[in-house]
Amino acid sequence: MSIAAAPQSPVRSPDRATETQTRLTAVPAPLPAPVAPRLPFVVLVSMLLVGGVVGLLVFNTSMQQSAFQEQRLQEQATTLAAREQALDGELKKMEDPHKIAAKAKNLGMVIPQNAAMLRVPEAKIEGEAAPADRSATPPLHPKVAKPYSVLVAEQKAAEAAAAKKKAAELAEKKRAQEAEEKQRTSSGEAR
């Protein structure tokens, strides 16, 4: 308990013999800070912070997984596009009329001399059908050769691809040698 001085009352006249005395009164001690109401607030703020951090971690992880999946799908799409191009090229080669005619000839197929036409609505046959023989089938013409400029361009492209492949192999070999030297020097320093 602390003691405080009460205000003095002014002296009214100098002839008064009694002097005003200071009154002392008791002041109550300060109350302790309330701990109980702060505890739920602290717990709430802590839970919000922990929840926010966990939420950020989960979000970041899911974004990383999405990025990896996107990369896998992109690689798969690139591979499928290359495969589609290759299959399209093969299909164009198979659709070549010269190849189709050569395969038909190898199978023994021939062009008929006289073809008959059947008109379904009138139920009439126009022309006279005759059996086909090899004499009616003309010889196949050889496939037209590519122009010289195309052949030169293809040859240059093949040479450039070979040079690029060789340069990549040399670079890989050099990296392997550097890695081997680095490993030897680090194992030498460790001893």
TrEMBL record:
<feature type="transmembrane region" description="Helical">
    <location>
        <begin position="39"/>
        <end position="59"/>
    </location>
</feature>
<feature type="compositionally biased region" description="Basic and acidic residues">
    <location>
        <begin position="166"/>
        <end position="191"/>
    </location>
</feature>
<feature type="region of interest" description="Disordered">
    <location>
        <begin position="1"/>
        <end position="22"/>
    </location>
</feature>
<keyword id="KW-0812">Transmembrane</keyword>
<protein>
    <recommendedName>
        <fullName>Cell division protein FtsL</fullName>
    </recommendedName>
</protein>
<feature type="region of interest" description="Disordered">
    <location>
        <begin position="163"/>
        <end position="191"/>
    </location>
</feature>
<keyword id="KW-1133">Transmembrane helix</keyword>
<keyword id="KW-0472">Membrane</keyword>
